[in-house]
Amino acid sequence: xxxxxxxxxxxxxxxxxxxxHHPMSPILHKAGWMGVDLFFVLSxxxxxxxxxxxxxxxxxxxxxxxxxxxxFKIYPSFFALLIISFIIDFFTHSLDTKQLxxxxxxxxxxxNYTSAVWGQTWSLAVEEHFYFFLIIxxxxxxxxxxxxxxxxxxxxxFVFFILCFILRILTHYRHPEYSVxxxxxPTHLRLDSMLFGVFLAAxxxxxxxxxxxxxxxxxxxxxxxxxxxxxxPFIFSVKSYFISTIGFTLLYIxxxxxxxxxxxxxxxxxxxxxxxxxxxxxFIAWVxxxxxxxYLFHMLFLKHLTQLFDPNTINFNQxxxxxxxxxxxxxxxVLMSKIIEIPALKLREKYYPKxxxxxxxxxxxx
Length: 366
Fold this sequence. Notes:
With 366 residues, the protein is an all-alpha fold. Helix content is 77%, strand content 0%.
């Protein structure tokens, strides 16, 4: 069952990313990169939530099934992008040694530390590392503790919040000059964004009444507070010391609050309906459904659109280009979802449904 508010947040995240990769709006072009941070928080919340639900229902975790189901979601569309890109590179004679090494980095999910065919896929590497880190941590914890403790999970997350923050400061100390691959992409510097989603999911699933009460009672204050936190990328450059240290922390807290308010407070939809129309809300939520494939394929679409419409020509129309970019990116993502992602998910549900196994063991079997 889909949650429309979560799809709306996904839609906001992918639209921010689209704006960040094309200067149709200078403000959003500057701050749109934070859409990836919203994706991180949502991923941490939703994916760990699946594990908490499973544990509450069966008192065990099937790690193998978890990883297989994640694979059916992530890999088909991702490898389709790489195959299409490889074919294009082959016929355009772009497959030199460096490009082949970039493909190797992509398929091994090391592109956030090395090099990549596409700039946007670094976040997939971070998420892939997170999935394995999460399932290994949860399985080992259950093996030794025999039960899940909200206090232990919260402590575990806070340790990594502090650790990642310290590592970001140390990274700047060792490398004062900003580099996106050194300060922005590495998993060990960004893991806390998804772990904040895990922290919130633990509160939501293991202490639901307290969670709902808090975010319902203080809705207005929390929304204002989150907007203050989320204003940071509009003020500071992504290359600044502030953003790549405490800025990432402020963003995941802000997005975590927004996510929590959305899923607990029944007033959220009416509030947004007064700001934007119901049709716009529904459209953004619809875009959010296809956000993964839009995210994957939008740069491929932009690259070839740019080749078709040369920005340096006299007759170049920036407004037309922007409309084609936004509309084409969304439509190509929807198309690829219907061709690849949705059929893959149907196969997943056929051969690896959630309740296929009886969860005889919580050991990690990969």
